[in-house]
Design a protein that fits this description.
Number of domains of chain A: 2
Radius of gyration of chain B: 25 Å
Strand order of the largest sheet of chain A: 2-8-7-6-5-3-4
Bound molecules: pyridoxal-5'-phosphate
Shape of chain A: globular
Oligomer: heterodimer
Structural class of chain B: alpha/beta
Order of helices and strands of chain A: HHEHHHEHEHEHEHEEEEEHHEEHEEEH
Structural class of chain A: alpha/beta
Number of helices of chain A: 13
Shape of chain B: globular
Helix content of chain A: 25-40%
CATH class of the largest domain in chain A: Alpha Beta
CATH superfamily of the largest domain in chain B: Type I PLP-dependent aspartate aminotransferase-like (Major domain)
CATH topology of the largest domain in chain A: Aspartate Aminotransferase, domain 2
Number of strands of chain B: 12
Strand order of the largest sheet of chain B: 1-7-6-5-4-2-3
Distance between the termini of chain A: 59 Å
Distance between the termini of chain B: 31 Å
Number of helices of chain B: 14
Chain lengths: ~450, ~500
C-alpha cells in the first residue's frame, strides 16, 4: 500500500540483483516455515480505516463527554492550538534521534531548551532529555542512588504518599536486585504529614529518600526537615514533582533535593488514555555524570558557530553496553518538544495563570464539597494544590457509579491502594473545570445525601 | 543563521497564550511555599511559532528525503495515523476511567495484542513497554521469573551475540544477569561451536536478533534455538528487525520464547526525533502468565445481541508493573491503523519490498565498497566505509559527505564487528529512483575519496552547522541556557 514499486521496477531490480523472483530472496528462511498465513482481517482503504477507527473511538465516552475530576497522575489541561500544529511538522516528527548534529540542530536546540526549562522549573542544575514517564524516571533515580554508593548503602526509603503505580514500577525495575531493600511505604509508617515515622527510618544504610510534591493526595508538605535529616546521614533525596504546581511553589532544588523527577504530561500532552507521556529527570551538579539517558550540550562547529550535540554518551548503552547507566535508547523525543512549546507559549505569565486557576478552582470545589453533609476533607489542615481527598459516608464505588450516571467522573477510589483510606476519593480540579461544572457536582452530591 | 534560544528571544511583559482570570472566590496561596520567581521566557505566539518553525527547518526527516539509517527502519509514517490517534475518543480518554466507559480503547488494545501475537506466531502479547529497550527489560524479567519460579536459581548468564544492539547487554545487566558475549562465525551467523561451549546449567537464555544487525537471517536459526533449549535456557528474540519477516516467518512458531517489536520501526509509528517508541512483547504459551500488569482480556464474549466486553487483568505470575497506566496508547492506535490497512497481503508486501530494496542497493554498491558478508541480505546490509588505498578516509567522512548530496547517512560504526561500518536500511517505501540517486552519490563519493579527499574530510558543506566539536561539549558541560552552577548563584 505504501510501496511505490511498479511491476517494471520490480523486474528491473531483480535483474540487477541476479535472481528471478522476489521469493528467491527468502531462500535462507527454513522452507517449512516460509510465508505462513496470517489470520488478519481483510485490508482497509484509508477511507475505510478512518471510519473504522472513528467508530472504535466513538465507543468511548471521555473527559469530553463527562465532567471529570480524575487525576491521580494524569491531568486534563488546555493545550494551546500552536502546540499540536508545530508538533505535526514532518521535520520534527519524522526525524530520528539527533545522532548527526549537522542535520539535527532543530531537535537538538529544542531539547537544549527543554533541559533549560526543566532545570529552571525544578531549581536543579542539569536535566536530561527525558525518560518514558514519571514512574520510570523515579525508578531510574533509585538506580542512580544505589549505584552512587556502589552498593554500600542498601536501603531505599519511599514515602507511602508517592503514587502507588510509581512504587510498583520501582519495585518492578529492582525485582532482580536482592541486595536492595525498598521500605518506608508500609501502613505502619503511614501518611502523616509530619513525616516523623519516615524520618526516623533514615540511617547510614539509606541511599535514597523519595517523596512526592505535591504528594499523591495533593498535599503540599514541607520537606525541609526530612531533607536535612537525610543529608545528615549522607543519603540522597529525590522529589517526584508535579510541573504545573511548580509554577507557584518553591522548587525542590531550592529546598535541597538532589534529584527531581516527574510526569511531564501536564505540559501540553493529551491524556491519550495513558500515553505517550514524558518523564523528566533533573539532578544537582554533583550527580551530573551519573545521570542516565540522553543529554544535549552546547559546543561550536569547525567555523566557530554555536552548535548543539548529544554529549557524555559514554554513559549510554550504545557505547558502554552492559556497563551503561541505563538501557534507555528511544526516549520521549516528541513529547519533550510538546512540553517545550507549551512552556514557551504560556511563558512566565500564562503558566502561572494556569497553576493559579487550578489552585483556585480546586479550593472552591473542596470548600463546597465539605459543606455538604456526609462529606469531609480528612487532610483539611494541610495545604493542597489541585488535588484533595474527600471522605464520604457513602460507599465509594456506588457513589462513583451514581456520579457517572450524572455524567461526572468523580475521581479515584483510594481504597484500591490504601486500605486505611476506605471511603476516600481523590479528586483533581484544573482550569478545565468551570465554576458551573463544579456547582453541578456539588448539586449532584447534595442530592445523593438527601436521597 | 543561528536561531536564538527562547531565553534570548524573551522580552518582559509578552506572553504567547493568556488564560481567563479565576471566577471563583479566591483562596490564599500559603506564603511559606510560594515560589519567589519563575524565570520563564516571555514571547508572543507568533514569536514562538516562528522560533519552532525555524528550528524544524534545521532538521533532516523522512518527509524531506531518503533516510537509510540501518537498524532504525525509517519508513514512511502514514499521515492517516496522525489523524486517527488524535480522534477525541482516544485523545481525551483519561487512563483511570472506568472500564465500561472505554470499551473502544480496550477493544483496540485486545485486538492489537492478538494481531501482534499472530504476526509473530506467539500465544499472547503485552502492549505495556514504552520502547524496544523496555521490551527487552520486560522479556528478561519474564525469563528471570520463569527460572526463579521453577527453583532454578543457578541460571545467571545470558548469551548475547557480538553483533547485538547495545540495549541487549544493558537490559540484561539491569536485571542482574551476567551478559556473556557470543562470537559470530565467518558467515555472520551465531557461532554454533562457541554457543555449545557456553551452554550449561547456568544459562538463563540468549538474546537473539534475527535478522541480525548485519541484515542477515541466521542460517543456523533452528540449531541455535535447539541448543539453548536443550541446555534449559529460553530464547529471547530482539524483533527490532521484523520489517524483513512480516508474513515471511513467524519466530514464535520456530521456538523463540519471547520477543519484542518496535512499533516505531516495523509498524510505521513515527520516531519523533528520538521517541516516543513502543515495544510490545510477545510470549509463547508457557510464559503467558508472566506478562506485565495490566493485561487486556475479554471479560465477556457476548452473544448475538450484545458485543463482547473487555477489561484489565493481572496475569497470574505477572512480573508486575513497568510503566504507569497501559503503555503508549497513542502509538498503539497508529500501529492498529497501519495493520488494519495492510492485512496479510500488505504486510508480506512490506517485507518483500524492504528486502528487494536492500538487495538492490547492495548489488549496486558492492563493487565500490567492501561487503564483508557477501550474501543475499534481508532488510539491510553493512558495508565497510574504508578503503586501503585512501587510509585517511573513514566511514564518518563518507557519512558527512552524503549530507551534501541531501541524504541522511547510514548508521555508522555499528554493528561493532564490522570495521568502519556503514549500515544501510532503505525500507520498502522508497522508490527505485531514490535508490539509484543514493547509489550514484555513494559511487561519486568513492571517487571523490581518491580525487578530492578534502571534500570528504571537510564535509558537510551546506548544512546549518558544520562538524561539531564533541570534545568541547563534553568538557564545557553546558546543558542549560544558564551555565551549570549559575542557578545556585541566582
Ligand atoms: C536491534 C535493536 N534492538 C533494540 C533497539 C532498542 O529500541 P528502542 O530504541 O526502542 O529502545 C534498537 C533500536 O535502535 C535496535 O536497533
Amino acid at each position: 500500500m505504501f510501496t511505490p514499486h511498479t511491476h517494471a521496477d520490480v523486474e528491473a531490480m531483480l535483474k540487477t540483483i541476479g535472481v528471478e523472483k522476489v521469493e528467491d530472496l527468502f531462500k535462507v528462511v527454513p522452507e517449512q516455515n516460509r510465508f505462513p498465513d496470517l489470520n488478519l482481517p481483510q485490508p482497509l482503504s484509508e477511507m475505510q480505516a478512518a471510519t473504522e477507527l472513528d467508530s472504535i473511538a466513538s465507543a468511548n465516552a471521555t473527559t469530553r463527554d463527562f465532567i471529570s475530576f480524575l487525576g491521580a497522575g494524569a491531568y486534563q489541561h488546555y493545550i494551546p492550538a500552536a502546540v499540536d500544529n508545530l508538533l505535526q511538522r514532518g521535520e520534527f516528527y519524522t526525524a530520528y534521534t539527533p545522532y548527526q548534529p549537522e542535520i539535527s540542530q532543530g531537535t537538538l536546540q529544542a531539547i537544549f531548551e527543554f533541559q533549560s526549562l526543566i532545570s529552571l522549573l525544578t531549581g536543579m542544575d542539569v536535566s536530561n532529555a527525558s525518560h518514558y514517564d514519571g514512574a520510570t524516571a523515579a525508578a531510574e533515580a533509585v538506580i542512580l542512588a544505589f549505584n552512587h554508593f556502589r552498593g554500600k548503602r542498601d536501603k531505599i526509603l519511599l514515602s507511602r504518599a508517592i503514587n502507588p503505580q510509581y512504587r510498583d514500577v520501582i519495585r518492578g525495575y529492582m525485582q532482580a536486585n536482592d541486595a536492595i531493600r525498598i521500605v518506608g511505604d508500609d501502613p505502619e509508617t503511614g501518611i502523616e504529614p509530619d513525616l516523623k515515622n519516615l524520618i526516623d527510618q533514615i540511617d547510614l544504610d539509606t541511599c535514597l529518600v523519595m517523596v512526592q510534591y505535591p504528594d499523591f493526595f495533593g498535599r503540599i508538605i514541607d520537606y525541609a526537615s526530612l531533607i536535612e535529616a537525610a543529608h545528615a546521614q549522607g543519603a540522597l533525596v529525590a522529589v517526584v514533582a508535579n510541573p504545573t504546581a511548580l509554577a507557584l511553589l518553591t522548587p525542590p532544588g531550592e529546598i535541597g533535593a538532589d534529584i527531581v523527577v516527574g510526569e511531564g504530561q501536564p505540559l501540553g500532552i493529551p491524556l491519550s488514555y495513558g500515553g505517550p507521556y514524558l518523564g523528566f529527570f533533573a539532578v544537582k551538579n554533583a550527580l551530573l555524570r551519573k545521570i542516565s539517558g540522553r543529554l544535549v550540550g552546547e559546543t561550536v562547529d569547525t567555523q566557530g558557530e554555536l552548535a548543539y550535540v548529544l554529549t557524555l554518551t559514554a554513559r549510554e548503552q550504545h557505547i558502554r553496553r552492559e556497563k551503561a547507566s541505563s538501557n534507555i535508547c528511544s526516549n520521549q523525543g516528541l513529547m519533550t518538544l510538546a512540553a517545550t512549546i507549551y512552556m514557551t507559549l504560556l511563558g512566565k505569565t500564562g503558566f502561572q495563570q494556569v497553576a493559579n486557576l487550578c489552585y483556585q478552582n480546586a479550593h472552591y470545589t473542596a470548600n463546597a464539597v465539605q459543606e455538604i453533609p456526609g462529606y469531609k476533607l480528612p487532610f483539611k489542615s494541610t495545604p493542597f494544590f489541585h488535588e484533595f481527598v474527600v471522605q464520604a459516608d457513602e460507599n465509594v464505588p456506588e457513589l462513583l457509579a451514581h456520579l457517572q450516571h450524572h455524567h461526572i467522573l468523580g475521581g479515584y477510589d483510594l481504597s484500591q491502594d490504601y486500605p486505611e483510606l476506605e471511603g476516600c476519593l481523590l479528586m483533581a480540579v484544573t482550569e478545565m473545570n468551570s465554576r458551573e461544572d463544579i456547582d453541578y457536582l456539588t448539586d449532584v452530591l447534595s442530592e445523593v445525601e438527601h436521597a | 543563521m543561528r536561531e536564538p534560544t527562547i531565553f534570548e528571544l524573551s522580552s518582559p511583559g509578552r506572553t504567547g497564550v493568556t488564560f481567563q482570570e479565576p471566577d471563583v472566590p479566591l483562596s490564599e496561596i500559603p506564603q511559606e511555599f510560594a515560589r519567589a520567581n519563575l524565570p520563564f521566557p516571555e514571547i508572543s505566539e507568533l514569536g514562538v511559532v516562528r522560533h519552532f518553525t525555524k528550528l524544524s527547518q534545521k532538521n533532516y526527516a523522512i518527509d524531506l528525503g531518503f533516510y537509510p539509517l540501518g537498524s532504525c527502519t525509517m519508513k514512511y509514517n502514514p499521515k492517516i495515523n496522525e489523524v486517527t490517534a488524535r480522534y477525541p475518543g482516544f485523545a481525551a480518554a483519561h487512563p483511570l476511567q472506568p472500564e465500561d466507559t472505554v470499551q473502544g480503547n480496550l477493544y483496540l488494545m485486545y485486538t492489537l495484542q492478538n494481531w501482534l501475537a499472530e504476526i509473530g506466531g506467539f500465544a499472547d502479547a503485552t502492549l505495556a513497554p514504552a520502547a524496544g529497550a523496555q521490551g527487552e527489560l520486560v522479556g528478561t524479567m519474564i525469563i528471570a521469573k520463569y527460572h526463579k519460579d521453577r527453583g532454578d536459581l543457578k541460571r545467571t548468564r545470558i548469551l548475547i551475540p557480538d553483533s547485538a544492539h547495545g540495549t541487549n547487554p544493558a537490559s540484561s545487566a539491569m536485571l542482574g544477569f551476567d551478559p556473556v558475549q557470543l562470537p559470530s562465525d565467518e558467515r555472520g551467523n551465531v557461532d554454533l561451536k562457541a554457543l555449545a561451549e557456553l551452554c550449561d546449567d547456568t544459562l538463563a537464555g540468549i538474546m537473539f536478533t534475527n535478522p541480525n544487525t548485519l541484515g542477515l537471517f541466521d542460517e543456523n536459526t533452528a540449531e541455535v534455538i535447539r541448543i539453548v533449549h536443550e541446555a534449559g535456557g529460553l530464547v529471547y528474540g530482539d524483533g527490532a528487525n521484523m520489517n524483513a519477516l512480516l508474513g515471511v516467518f513467524k519466530p514464535g512458531e520456530c521456538g523463540i520464547d519471547v520477543m519484542h517489536y518496535n512499533l516505531h520501526k516495523t509498524f510505521s509509528t513515527p520516531h519523533g526525533g528520538g521517541g516516543p517508541g513502543s515495544g510490545p512483547v510477545m510470549v509463547c504459551e508457557k510464559l503467558v502468565d508472566y506478562l506485565p500488569d495490566p493485561h487486556v482480556v475479554m471479560t465477556d464474549p457476548g452473544d448475538e445481541d450484545t458485543p463482547p466486553t473487555y477489561g484489565f487483568a493481572r496475569p497470574e505470575k505477572s512480573i508486575g508493573r513497568v510503566k504507569t497506566f497501559h503503555g503508549h496508547f497513542g502509538m498503539l492506535v497508529r500501529a492498529f491503523t497501519y495493520i488494519a490497512m495492510l492485512g496479510q497481503e500488505g504486510l508480506r508486501d512490506v517485507a518483500e519490498k524492504a528486502v528487494l530494496n536492500a538487495n538492490y542497493l547492495q548489488a549496486k554498491l558492492k563493487g565500490t565498497y567492501t561487503l564483508p558478508y557477501d550474501r543475499s541480505c534481508m532488510h539491510e546490509f553493512v558495508l565497510e566505509g574504508y578503503w586501503k588505498d585512501v587510509p585517511d578516509i573513514h566511514a564518518l567522512d563518507i557519512a558527512k559527505r552524503l549530507m551534501d548530496y541531501d541524504f541522511h547517512p547510514p548508521t555508522n560504526y555499528f554493528p561493532l564487528i564490522v570495521h568502519e561500518a556503514l549500515m544501510i536500511e532503505p525500507t520498502e517505501t522508497e522508490s527505485v529512483e531514490t535508490l539509484d540517486q543514493f547509489a550514484d552519490a555513494m559511487v561519486k563519493i568513492a571517487e571523490e575519496a581518491r580525487t578530492q579527499p578534502e571534500l570528504l574530510k571537510n564535509a558537510p558543506h551546506n548544512t546549518p552547522v558544520k562538524r561539531a566539536d564533541e570534545l568541547k561539549a563534553a568538557k564545557d558541560l553546558v546543558f542549560c541556557c544558564y551555565p551549570v552552577g549559575e542557578w545556585e548563584k541566582k
